Amino acid sequence: TTSRPFHFRAYRNGRNYPIVLVMAFIFYLIPMGLEKWKQVVNQFCYAHLVTFVIMLYRSLMNNPEVDPYSGRWYGDFLNIGDFGLFLGCVVAVILYKLYQIKKEKGRKNVEYILWMVALAVAAWVTLRVSTITCYIGILFIFLMGFIVVRKEATIKKSLFRFVSVAVGLVVIGIVGFLALKGLANTDFDYWNKLLLEGNVFIKPIADIVDRAHYMFDETRTFSDSGIFAPDSFINYVDLFTSGRLSIIKVFSEYFNFTGNPSMGLQVGEYFAHNTHNTYSQVIFDYGYIGGGLFIIWLLYCMGASVGQYLKKKQVSQVFVCAWVAMLLGILL
Question: Which of 17, 62, 231, 247 has the maximum number of C-beta atoms within 10 A of its C-beta?
Fold first, then answer.
């Protein structure tokens, strides 16, 4: 479409805004008792698992081969973003169910084993799809588990863990940057071949090395638009993320209070259909007001879910913590 409808679009280049919002409203605006809440959460998890099994079967039957140009598996999805978003949701519900069963029944039962099998299959598919979107979502889930859930955390302990994680991520970022600079000196053709033809375990590593070459090899850059200074840190991040920051910067020039009907913009020599970042895309589509409400609502859901868990220590509250954490990461 070329015109922007009044309501949120049901689908826009893999970004499912209304699904995110509706699910958040379901979690917080429907009054129900604890037992009813647990039933709803369990049914939600089983629905995701069944959907995952059906979509995996369809993908293996219809499109079992990886894309020859990117080395990634699109399956029966229209694009890699859809697959990554879906996988993030699946991994979130599986991890929650494993946590729930472990707390309530222990690990030695059939149901726990079946969910472990589901996790193994989901991990295999995630590696085969190899999208950074899903990896970030899963990382946010584990960070949330460490900060809030691990060893019956208190508010004080959670704040300390949050600061520790922030410092740790900065250190990892610095070390990672230096490591990428070293990897850029390796054989590009060798790693690119592994990216296209290697197994599911080597592909993520090959993808990182491939990005390192683009970061530090002047002959391989995202575009010639010159949006960021060549030797600046932000330019290296831009190249590592395949030009995402360049795209967001160009789109940000059109941010306003009412939003934009355009379905894409020219970024250097590349035409971008969207910002490849849901937060900035919502602001572009629906203006500062709509985008601000969207971001505030997600942050509120995160704060409320963490607060509820720390106060009541109910296992079912962990689901919302994991789910919203995954959304905050996967929508980047």
Answer: 247
Q: Residue 271: beta bridge partners?
A: 266
**Cα 257 to Cα 213, 246, 260, 285, distances in angstroms:** 39, 22, 9, 10
Rounded to whole angstroms, the Cα distance separating 287 from 292 reads: 8
Cα separation, 227 vs 229, in Å, equals 7
Query: Of the segments 49-58, 78-87, 210-219, 223-232, which one has the largest average pLDDT value?
Result: 49-58
Q: Which of 261, 286, 327 is nearest to 93 (CA)?
A: 327
Q: How confident is the model at residue 226 (pLDDT cuts 50, 70, 90)?
A: low
What is the CA 62 to chain-centroid distance, rounded?
Answer: 25
Sequence-ordered strand ranges (E) for 236-280? 265-267, 270-272
Report how far residue 15's alpha carbon sits from residue 242's, in angstroms, rounded to the nearest whole number: 18
The rounded distance, in Å, linking the Cα atoms of 329 and 34 is: 28
Around Cβ 174, how many Cβ atoms within 10 Å? 10
Neighbours of 16 (CB within 10 A): 20
Question: Identity (one letter) of the amino acid at 184?
Answer: A
Give the predicted TM-score (pTM) of the model.
Answer: 0.78
For residue 118, what pLDDT is reported? Answer: 92
Neighbours of 216 (CB within 10 A): 17
* Bridge partners, 272 (sequence order): 265
